[in-house]
Amino acid sequence: xxxxxxxxxxxxxxxxxxxxxxxxxxxxxxxxxxxxxxxxxxxxxxxxxxxxxxxxxxxxxxxxxxxxxxxxxxxxxxxxxxxxxxxxxxxxxxxxxxxxxxxxxxxxxxxxxxxxxxxxxxxxxxxxxxxxxxxxxxxxxxxxxxxxxxxxxxxxxxxxxxxxxxxxxxxxxxxxxxxxxxxxxxxxxxxxxxxxxxxxxxxxxxxxxxxxxxxxxxxxxxxxxxxxxxxxxxxxxxxxxxxxxxxxxxxxxxxxxxxxxxxxxxxxxxxxxxxxxxxxxxxxxxxxxxxxxxxxxxxxxxxxxxxxxxxxxxxxxxxxxxxxxxxxxxxxxxxxxxxxxxxxxxxxxxxxxxxxxxxxxxxxxxxxxxxxxxxxxxxxxxxxxxxxxxxxxxxxxxxxxxxxxxxxxxxxxxxxxxxxxxxxxxxxxxxxxxxxxxxxxxxxxxxxxxxxxxxxxxxxxxxxxxxxxxxxxx
Length: 474
Description:
Layout: H1 2-14, E1 23-29, H2 49-57, E2 59-65, H3 71-80, H4 84-87, E3 111-112, H5 127-133, E4 137-142, E5 160-162, H6 194-208, E6 214-219, H7 231-238, E7 247-250, E8 253-256, H8 262-284, E9 291-297, H9 324-327, E10 328-334, E11 343-345, E12 349-350, H10 354-361, H11 376-381, E13 389-393, E14 404-409, E15 412-417, E16 423-427, H12 443-459, E17 466-467
Parallel strand pairs: 1-6, 1-9, 2-11, 2-12, 4-5, 4-6
Antiparallel strand pairs: 2-10, 3-17, 7-8, 9-10, 13-14, 14-15, 15-16
Helix pairs in contact: 6-8, 7-8
């Protein structure tokens, strides 16, 4: 069957009139929520015409997931096609290890977080390395956050690195403006804006390598904190009519329930304009038809902490949480040579799927085992993979989430919380907001999914949180 499927895909690919290898542009936003994009939320306060264009000209996946509710684990999964739990890269790099919580706000939590690996493992073959070995030229622009020097993009297969290092945000003197204080990105002229610069570098790379197959990876720092925006766009959104702010609660945290934050809106639009710069370059160079463009985010929108700048409603919670607001992402794929525009695909997919999919499109073998699956049968033949999806986040999120694991099977989603062993069950087809825990009335389903989750955790040798015997009551 696998040979037969591969043969079908090869025939389909061979039918294209373009004989050159397919190019790839991967655009990764940081902390952008599912409901922040017009293609997913026509009522959004933010304006995203260029991202929406990708939806109109490509496939809009309505159930695209990040592999984790925070950035580094998801980014590692995109690079390797593996679940973070398998690599033990389960928290953002820089989070406290279990023996370093004494000075951290989690010091009196019931559990110590699992120990995690603080860099992308060198022994894992990355997407960039696999494509480089196949003759692709590879480029990185923007946020990396997958290790310190010695584990930067150029150490994992990218031939060019513009701005990727260990920092998780633009924390230099100018923040999103010059001076960047970034050792992998020289300063531009006074007033230069980081998303525009990263897009310009990406467009320049594409132009210089238009005669070669390429992977251009544009990884925005936007819209991660600090919340800083262009003055003209901030003024635009301050003048735009908006609903009054409504607050709810999620655990011990406030959660924003309205989109009306002018600075955040300006950051979203500036990022969207930068996306437009890259799309325009592909058009001008006549490369759009045979270039796969992927747009997604690394975790859900920030709604319960650090300024609470956005709302993910109707999705519950946000970044740092295992509810849908923390892991469901905008996911758009455009490939005019093969994919009709305006298509909507409801099949659940996850970030480990990207590496096998791009290698499938490039007609290159996988370098080893992956947890993700190639999505060409879904994209070309609408044949959905039958599988469970998993998440493992054995940490306390800065945004209020607590250690837990998740299995999704069909429309069912089971969340296990490690503080008290509680398991919650939701049917996402009927309750995407996760307001109705069905565990007490569906014992058989809970047992089945809980057992499958146990088996998966054992299979990937997942590291677990442990009791915090030094916790004190303050």
